[in-house]
């Protein structure tokens, strides 16, 4: 397999990619953030010159959605300038950039699955910086941008692990029921990224990828508790009953037809993947 360098290797998705590389692990390089800081242009030049990667997978990002509202400078640096720096290196070395973006580039006011050509309209600093990051990624011609949403796994910080922690500490939880989307098991997304590489595809562009199905944060939390056998009362609430610094889309289900048709993949239903994750966390 071609040489692949992963940026943001210590994060949730980076860890999932590492965990599934198996026999091909020698083709993958998972540098620490200090060696692969996407804001350090000189460091990136050295890394690209040393490894001459055929693929750069960008899992590096500023992902603290609420904190980004007050920390917009850093969010913009990492999510926009960092991506531009990577895209420049990819252009220089003929590297294919696989960049990860988010459903939060959408406003979420239209209740039908969103396609890659639907209008974007971020409603948070995080969402805006991720959209601007997509614009930086397309500056290198060989790019795949994968928009995903509601990522969770046994690695890193995520909603499932937060629910298991809170569920063990409290008798009852109030969870927003009017934000609708689809969870994505980061192991499934990691598999999709490796499929793109294995197929040596040159169908560059934007793709939507989440698990199949539709749910709300409330129903997602209920499923986590049902599957893990956690006894906790879960109360559905409206968004305005759970004030947060950042505004989140009301509806961000993505249409994945393009990814399924282009790469001939089947995508697991969200609850089936959640079962696997809960077993792993067991
Ligand atoms: N989490 C989610 O629910 C969703 C995530 N996404 C997108 O998926 C991608 C992966 O997310 P996820 O794995 O959950 O994110 P994490 O927050 O778990 O990981 C982010 C990674 O980025 C690294 N990083 C931060 N700043 C820099 C920098 N300047 N240079 C290099 N690396 C840096 C972090 O390293 P360190 O810890 O050392 O700082 C960490 O390894 C991101 O693009 C995110 O926007 C999309 C939809 C949903
Ligand atoms: C902890 C908690 C959260 N919530 C709500 C708040 C929010 O609307 C929703 C999810 O909260 P979180 O803060 O865990 O997730 P959040 O950071 O908003 O998740 C987002 O992360 C970024 C990186 C993305 O790109 C998105 O796709 C999405 O996954 O659940 C409750 O209603 N009750 C609770 O007790």
From TrEMBL:
This protein's record includes keyword NADP: yes
Pathway in which the depicted protein is active: Carbohydrate biosynthesis; dTDP-L-rhamnose biosynthesis
Catalytic activity: dTDP-beta-L-rhamnose + NADP(+) = dTDP-4-dehydro-beta-L-rhamnose + NADPH + H(+)
EC nos: 1.1.1.133
GO molecular function annotation: dTDP-4-dehydrorhamnose reductase activity
A Pfam family per the record: RmlD_sub_bind
UniProtKB keywords: NADP, Oxidoreductase
Gene3D superfamilies the record matches: NAD(P)-binding Rossmann-like Domain (3.40.50.720), UDP-galactose 4-epimerase, domain 1 (3.90.25.10)
Lineage top rank: taxon: Bacteria
InterPro entries to which the protein is assigned, alphabetical: dTDP_dehydrorham_reduct, NAD(P)-bd_dom_sf, RmlD-like-bd
Enzyme class, spelled out: oxidoreductase
Domain RmlD-like substrate binding residues, every copy: 3-281
UniProt keyword annotation of Oxidoreductase present: yes
Biological role stated in the UniProt entry: Catalyzes the reduction of dTDP-6-deoxy-L-lyxo-4-hexulose to yield dTDP-L-rhamnose.
Family to which this protein belongs: Belongs to the dTDP-4-dehydrorhamnose reductase family.
Protein name: dTDP-4-dehydrorhamnose reductase
Gene: rfbD
